[in-house]
Amino acid sequence: MLTYSTLTPADISRIIEMAWEDRTPFEAIKTLYGLGEPDVRVLMRRELKPSSFRLWRERVSGRKTKHLQLRSPEINRGYCPTQYKR
């Protein structure tokens, strides 16, 4: 199960950001932080206000882009190319 002692506040913030992003699959969070979808749900429930958690769960439930196996093969990136402008 998830251990919060190994996550920094910056890690938690980034995981929350990735979980809210439509095109970032749960598998990407698993690869980077070792947290599967159930662990992300626990983290989100703990870190968000109850109303924000409910909005997030409603948003991601059944969303094809949040699961690699359900995604269209044409989507080969996790974010918009202009998202991280430099």
From TrEMBL:
<protein>
    <submittedName>
        <fullName>TIGR03643 family protein</fullName>
    </submittedName>
</protein>
<dbReference type="InterPro" id="IPR019882">
    <property type="entry name" value="CHP03643"/>
</dbReference>
<dbReference type="Pfam" id="PF10985">
    <property type="entry name" value="DUF2805"/>
</dbReference>
